Amino acid sequence: VQLVESGGGLVQAGGSLRLSCVASGFTFSRYSMRWYRQAAGKERELVAHIVSSGTSTNYADSVKGRFTISRDNTKNTMYLQMNSLRPEETAVYYCNAPTLGYWGQGTQVTVSS
What we know:
113 residues; seven-stranded mixed sheet; four-stranded antiparallel sheet
């Protein structure tokens, strides 16, 4: 089983990034998926959740209206489109299959002010 995130990097405040999470080793289309993030010295926090079909999503209040979670079950891939990024959102972003307990290795997002 693997979850591999990509798409992180350095961006200026107000900028955008699109994260990807490619899944393998399990039937991706059957499971809800989540994005989490963890800033240095802070607890990991849930950013967004998407059901297996992609028809329902939920977001942390802090990212509503700026982030969009989506998935392409034909590509075993989940995405996180992040717009209007803020410096306080600098963190390692992880994808997660909650009911299976699988985590990716994370991708660093750094937002400069």
